[in-house]
Amino acid sequence: MYAQERQQHIARQARTAGRVEVVALAHELGVTTETVRRDLTALERRGTLRRVHGGALPVERVELEPAVTTRATRLSDQKHRIAVRALDELPHDGTLILDSGTTTGALAALLPHDARLTVITNSYAHAAVLSALPDVSVLVLGGHVRQRTGATVGRWAREALEGVCADVALLGTNGLDIARGLTTPDQAEADVKESMVRAARRRIVLADSSKVGEVHLHRFARLDDLDLVITDEDLDEDHLAELRTDDGPEVVLA
Q: Are the C-beta atoms of 129 and 104 separated by less than 8 Å?
């Protein structure tokens, strides 16, 4: 069994049983405890599991949906690189939909002072950053503000997007899977993200490598709805090969 297969098995078992133990996994998989610990470390780095004494817990059990303040400190270098690469995709003097999230927030912070854009966002935090730029016009989607993520959601946000025809949408996601597409734990956020996908001519997702292979409850887009995926160089080769298909989006590593 290859490392990727072992890790997928471990992740599935952790979600089913609620936890996994090093010694039991080593016996079941026919490998050393050191090999299992390396697999658990790899899964923890991807944000799938959390190591505990003697084993690991699925991240959903530790924190069902991490708050934005928690996510902001995770993989910050990778998110910065993704945001830098995403700057190349911005329209000149065009319209941009900017989703809530920490990676899209990194992009907002990097916009140059002379940027000329109209930006529609469902994040008041992003809007506060962008409003300091003299030639950026900021439109904030209304609705209920989710305290956990800082995103506006609900009917007001969805209805506002129905009349929008933007050049580019830059989207965040909690999960990105070849079969299940883009997913997030909250239905209200999924609904707004789906509206963002429909409202833009070009759809780009910014997702660090820990999101790839993850699946959450609510899907808001399929991979073939996207034009481009920007992720980081830590993405393993198996996942990269899965994503780079003839009928899928372009995939670039930052």
A: no
What is the pTM for the complete model shown?
0.74
Host H or E run for residue 171: strand 166-171
Q: Please state whether beta strands 49-52 and 94-98 pair in parallel, antiparallel, or not at all (unpaired).
A: unpaired
Tell me the residue length of the chain. 254
**Cβ of 165: how many Cβ atoms within 10 Å?**
8
Among 155, 243, 215, 168, CA closest to 8 = 215
User: How many C-beta atoms surround the C-beta of residue 139 within 10 A?
Assistant: 13
* Chunked mean pLDDT (size 10), the chain, 254 residues: 89 86 94 93 85 80 53 73 97 96 96 96 97 97 92 97 97 93 95 98 95 90 97 90 91 97
Q: How far is CA 153 from CA 65, 99, 144, 184, 251, in A?
A: 16, 11, 5, 13, 28
Locate 248 and state its tokens: 């899928």
Pairing, β 136-140 against β 117-121: parallel
Question: Nearest CA to 87 among 165, 175, 200, 170?
Answer: 170
